[in-house]
UniProtKB/TrEMBL annotation:
Catalyzes the cleavage of L-allo-threonine and L-threonine to glycine and acetaldehyde. This is L-threonine aldolase. Homotetramer. Belongs to the threonine aldolase family. It comes from Marinobacter algicola DG893. Residues 6-295 form the Aromatic amino acid beta-eliminating lyase/threonine aldolase domain. The lineage of its organism: Bacteria, Pseudomonadati, Pseudomonadota, Gammaproteobacteria, Pseudomonadales. The keyword Lyase applies. One of its GO terms (biological process) is L-threonine catabolic process. Gene3D superfamilies: Aspartate Aminotransferase, domain 1, Type I PLP-dependent aspartate aminotransferase-like (Major domain).
């Protein structure tokens, strides 16, 4: 069994060939530094074309920085940001958003399947309005969510309505934005600026890059001086083209979408193969590239003994993640092993 026998995470994957090729091309000549190069211009223009709007685009190294800096740009230190209790910004960023904003507090909301509801948002905004409570100024939605579900365009518009009532900016953690677009089969604009999203952190890493996230400001007023925020935080790449050129590789001929479709399809194959097996139950509906599944502990242990890697998530369910590099044959091998163990 090779090291690639894993459903641990989409960021275990390597660099997809198209991104690798673009990186090699960018390596063919010297270029201006700090984002003044042709590749960075081309990647930013490519994202503006993709979203079909005149947005401001910045590239940073990773998702925690993208989220933290984007959220910091949406309010002051005395403000708060509403997010789901399972949100990555709450559970997995080591206080990065609070740190970058000099203390803005996260307020935790609820909702089924990892999704914030308008009711939960309203509850958090209205339960206190006094000066002793950090004033809600923004909300953060993860698309697709940490539990592999998606907000529909209708759900996003309903949330925007609530956000309008309380003057909240909307941030979208798009670590798996591509997978959400693929699953919903919508134009990327439909689940971003047309649904009132102010800023999107669009992940390249989990889609097929070595590293690099695009922070896309649809609300351009919020992008004021953002380049200084990035620089201060150590997120201005000096050889920026090595982040932006691979993005060009993803954007050309919609490789980003093909990668996401492939990962989603592998997860669907997994879900279909697992569903109905004795002792096995899906914990959340399979909508993107992750399958969350309840499996007896001895089965999980036996799979790990065979070399399969995966993490446990939320109450012990196994999280099986697929990426551009997952193969249908690998899914079949996993399913065969599971079937042997449960029958
Ligand atoms: C992976 C991920 C991120 C970004 O994580 P980094 O390790 O900082 O790049 C952000 N949000 C979600 C939901 C993620 O899954």
């Amino acid at each position: 069994m090779s090291e690639s026998e894993q459903f641990a995470s989409d960021n275990y994957s390597g660099i997809c060939p198209q991104a690798w090729k673009a990186m090699a091309e960018a390596n063919g000549s010297d270029e201006p530094a700090y984002g003044e190069d042709r590749w960075t211009q081309r990647a930013a223009d490519g994202l503006r074309a993709l979203f079909d709007t005149d947005c401001d685009v910045f590239f940073v190294f990773n998702g925690t920085a993208a989220n933290s800096l984007a959220l910091a740009s949406m309010g002051q230190s005395f403000h708060s940001v509403i997010c789901h209790e399972l949100a990555h910004i709450e559970t997995d960023e080591c206080g990065g958003p609070e740190y970058a904003s000099n203390g803005a507090k996260l307020l935790l909301g609820q909702g089924p399947n990892g999704k914030l509801t308008p009711e939960s948002i309203e509850h958090l905004v209205t339960k206190r309005t006094d000066i002793h409570y950090p004033k809600p100024k923004a909300l953060s939605l993860t698309q697709a969510t940490e539990v592999g579900t998606v907000y529909s365009p209708d759900e996003l518009r309903a949330i925007r309505k609530t956000a309008d009532r309380f003057k909240l900016n909307i941030h979208m953690d798009g670590a798996r934005f591509a997978n959400a677009v693929a699953a919903l089969d919508v134009h990327p604009s439909e689940i971003t600026w047309k649904a009132g999203v102010d800023v999107l952190c669009f992940s390249g890493t989990k889609n097929g890059l070595a590293l690099g996230e695009a922070v896309v400001f649809f609300n351009r007023a919020l992008a004021e001086d953002f380049e200084w925020r990035c620089k201060q935080a150590g997120q201005l790449a000096s050889k920026m083209r090595y982040i932006s050129a691979p993005w060009c590789g993803l954007l050309k001929e919609n490789v980003w979408l093909e990668n996401a479709r492939h990962a989603n399809a592998c997860a669907e194959q997994l879900a279909q193969g697992l569903e109905g097996l004795p002792g096995i139950q899906l914990r959340y509906p399979r909508q993107v590239n992750g399958v969350f599944v309840e499996m007896p502990d001895p089965v999980q242990a036996a799979l790990r003994d065979k070399g399969w890697k995966f993490y446990n998530f939320i109450g012990g369910s196994a999280r099986l993640m697929c990426s551009w590099s997952t193969t249908p044959e690998q899914v079949d091998r996993f399913l065969a092993d599971v079937r042997k163990l449960v029958s």
